[in-house]
């Protein structure tokens, strides 16, 4: 069977030179309507994806830090009371009586006491939670570790809470630790803690900055005829918990009463 071959068409000849017919190439090119619709659809989708990605980038770079700062501020402005325990008032109580006192006051307590210590009856480790934080929520947050939390979550669990420990294995050693977001400076936090614990009318002793960089004030106090030593120490909160976003003026305070 003979094969049909398309022969080229020539529009002009000039002796030995022949010119091919290029009229088809000079015709205006236009995409068929269905293909134009498909292309337009792809363009709309691409523009939508680009706009979404652009919004996400702007939101993460510009708006996310602002939202985080607002969340921190909101958690610090919550109506939660610190209700700091008075160590001089509790030092003569048994562990059971102290727990009962906290229960009667309506505190939500997170118990960190080690089993051996609890079994021996020589002390405890208790955290009083903010009034609007449940045990379940606090448990999840503490399991992560305070310094691993976001600034908003750290502010939520630290504002309005304190940790009290008692060690009766050798003498008496009561301590309470908490974050102070209100005093504004380390020196002010020390003085406010002394007043809150009712130690401002006791005998003052050494003061200054210890080897760890903590500002402190020490003294002695007479309780029911017994002399106890006390010390209030404070440092910047960032020195204890490296959580970005918490106020630079936040202070970590520790009060110790011992004999």
Tell me briefly what this model is.
With 259 residues, this protein is of the alpha+beta class. Helix content is 36%, strand content 26%.
> Strand tally, please?
10
Low-confidence stretches: none
Strand adjacency order, main sheet: 3-4-5-6-10-9-8-7
Structural class: alpha+beta
Q: The biggest beta sheet, please?
A: 8 strands, antiparallel
Radius of gyration: 37 Å
Descriptive notes:
With 259 residues, the chain is α+β, with helices and mostly antiparallel strands. Helix content is 36%, strand content 26%. It has helices at 33-76, 87-90, 95-104, 115-120, 135-144, 151-158, 186-196, and strands spanning 10-14, 17-20, 109-111, 123-128, 162-167, 173-180, 203-209, 215-223, 226-236, 251-258. Strands 3-4-5-6-10-9-8-7 form an eight-stranded antiparallel β-sheet. A hairpin with a 2-residue loop joins strand 8 (215-223) and strand 9 (226-236).
Write the layout of secondary structure elements.
Elements lengths: L9 E5 L2 E4 L12 H44 L10 H4 L4 H10 L4 E3 L3 H6 L2 E6 L6 H10 L6 H8 L3 E6 L5 E8 L5 H11 L6 E7 L5 E9 L2 E11 L14 E8 L1
Helix pairs in contact: 1-6
From the structure above, extract its key features.
259 residues; eight-stranded antiparallel sheet; alpha+beta; two-stranded antiparallel sheet
